[in-house]
């Protein structure tokens, strides 16, 4: 064997080693897959963590954009003229707005604030778009204490791209800042789906230009940093209004949340956060039942916000249907509300039965205590020229939503 230049290695004595059993091979295979799966999970966690850290900002402050010339917080603590304001963009919200007005009159009619006697009695203003609201609705609004104030429709930016029809008119809310033109120095805005449980005079005495309540979401966002635009405390300023309009097209924010997202961006660095009792979003009862129980049982709730469930219909009627202004429409609206109230009481297994009952009591109280004024309104407008002209003029879209929202709707036809 020397010819191959290496020494001969003899074979080992004894038996050859037997191959591993099949179960050992199976165990090794499973361990390999386990290690592989753990590696994939680890890599995925690192990747998702990087995406989260470098991803889209979660709040308006993460992507703050300078839209204002100054940082202003203080304002007069004893305004000469105050107001409580709501909005009405179509007749669909007539009964909710009437119920809100009645709840206000329960606490503000013929009484003054014992804690803030120097503050003036707030006016109760209803901002509305003239060609959208029927004479009957305006008459009913006056019957519960609202003072109608016409404003122009403000179209959403970017031709309404990314915004649903339900929020197509919400940018008209920016008209709140024009009320300094009629002498209002401080106002509290209330959405039409809110209900007043107690006076809130202390808000008018706060030395701030803008304040709101942090939002609450039923999903993973939970208790958010951003505020809910359903209740706002603000100092009107035409200069701020013009600046809001000037930056609508340039500002970057989620379009689906409409004016609420824009206001969160615009006032993100200076908005004063109010306690939840001033905008008691029903979602709080889902997220934190103990918090809700503490607020409601301590008689601290000022304003309840019926975000979900709502005891009344809130979607616009189908195109081509009559939107209000007649006795028949009002009676149908009442029947619809009765059904919706019962449905809302059963939502989430009856979780909100008590809160829906608060709204129902106020609505029925309004129907009872204002029945004479409401009947007078129906007599005044029945068969009138205004109702007849409104019923037959324009296209079916204009009859249903008004020409401004009709134009907005055309942009969403697919």
Protein traits:
alpha/beta, 13 helices, 10 strands, disordered C terminus, seven-stranded mixed β-sheet, single chain, about 425 residues, Spore Coat Polysaccharide Biosynthesis Protein SpsA, Chain A, globular
Describe what is shown at a glance:
By secondary structure, this protein is an alpha/beta fold. The protein has 13 helices and ten strands. Helix content is about 40%, strand content about 10%.
Describe the 3D structure:
The chain has a seven-stranded mixed beta sheet with strand order 3-2-1-4-7-6-8. A three-stranded mixed beta sheet has the order 5-10-9. The longest helix is centred in the N-terminal third of the chain and has 33 residues, at 22-54. It is globular. The protein is an alpha/beta fold. It has a single domain, classed as Spore Coat Polysaccharide Biosynthesis Protein SpsA, Chain A (Alpha-Beta Complex), CATH 3.90.550. A hairpin with a 6-residue loop joins β6 (210-216) and β7 (223-234). The chain has helices at 22-54, 94-108, 135-143, 238-247, 258-266, 283-287, 289-297, 327-346, 353-369, 371-381, 385-392, 396-401, 403-410, and strands spanning 82-88, 123-128, 147-150, 186-190, 194-196, 210-216, 223-234, 272-273, 280-281, 303-305. It contains 13 helices and ten strands. Residues 379-399 are annotated as: Disordered. This is Glycosyltransferase family 8 protein.
